[in-house]
Amino acid sequence: MKTGSDNDYLKRVQTIFLGDIVSAELIKSGWSNVVVDVNQSQIFRFIRHPGRQFELEKAFLKSFAPESPIPIPNPTIEAEDFIAYPRLAGERFAPEKFAALSAEHQELLLRQLGRFLSALHGLDFSHPHLAQFPYGGADFWQDLWEPAESLLKPSTALVAKRFFQTKLKLTQRSDVRPCMVHSDLGTNNLLVDFDQPSLTAVIDFSDLAWGDPAVDFAGFYRNFGRDFVERLLRFYAEPIGDHFWDRVKYEAMRKQFFVIYFANKFGFENHIPAVVQNIERLFSTLTSQAPPRKT
């Protein structure tokens, strides 16, 4: 089954699960995944659009789970459109909760995260479906910019176009070494025990790709700020290449335009106005921080 209502997925679990079901709670119904928690002990993650990328993810999880320094999903059941794995404890990596920790406890989490990123980015892994742009969008100007440009205010479009023209030139000249990237790190896909504190899991590798390591720092830059990334880099063991901050800023902004592309491609057009509003906000911040243009 490739699509279905949330209730359909709950019914699927009842036919698949071996044993008594005391509870079955739908905990996520997103653009790509539907996640069901069974008995607060087993996670069933259904893929709305299964195919090559999901086959890659399953192979990757089997390969990396035994050696990952932070727990990741380790499937015990898998099929064409779902995996099941033991529930991983923790809550989302919320910026406000991180900020409330002591400097010592913040450093503990940053150290763990740095070890994980170093292991992922240094991983020797190959697969026939591994790609830089698994969902398309390789041509930024045609695929990502054109559908969004007419939705933006003219002033925002002008600032955004200048930004991407500048950053793309730098990223294309960079000596960056491509690697395995999660592609969706930031807040929702990192689980934390803030009482310990400890990074307890990294989840949802559905956007797994072969690309610039800056991709995996962009979400932290967007959600936590530059200081967080600078501190994280102290515990990162892989090369970052030149023009690092330009690449991070480019990837952080590019993601917003990719979301519009993805929404159009997979039928989530009703979410586009909120994404456009966010782009307007982000580039208004850039405009307010920019020095006056010389005349």
Topology of this structure?
Elements: H1 6-16, E1 24-29, E2 33-38, E3 42-47, H2 52-64, E4 77-78, E5 82-86, E6 91-92, H3 95-100, H4 103-121, H5 140-149, H6 154-173, E7 179-181, E8 190-193, E9 198-202, E10 209-211, H7 215-224, H8 226-233, H9 244-266, H10 272-289
Antiparallel strand pairs: 1-2, 2-3, 3-5, 4-5, 6-8, 7-10, 8-9
Helix pairs in contact: 5-9, 6-9, 7-8, 7-9, 9-10
Helix and strand element order = HEEEHEEEHHHHEEEEHHHH
Q: Give the proportion of residues in helices.
A: 40-55%
Q: Which secondary-structure class do the elements indicate?
A: alpha+beta
Mean pLDDT: 93
Count every beta strand, where a strand is a DSSP E run of 2 or more residues: 10
N-C termini distance: 61 Å
Percentage of β-strand residues: 5-15%
Kindly provide the name of the CATH class of the largest domain: Alpha Beta
Question: How would a crystallographer describe the biggest sheet?
Answer: 5 strands, antiparallel
**Weakly predicted, low-confidence segments:** 288-295
Assembly state:
single chain
The CATH homologous superfamily of the largest domain is called: Aminoglycoside phosphotransferase (APH), C-terminal lobe
CATH topology of the largest domain: Aminoglycoside 3'-phosphotransferase, Chain: A, domain 2
| Helical stretch tally | 10
Named at the architecture level, the CATH assignment of the largest domain is Alpha-Beta Complex
Cross-sheet strand order for the largest sheet: 1-2-3-5-4
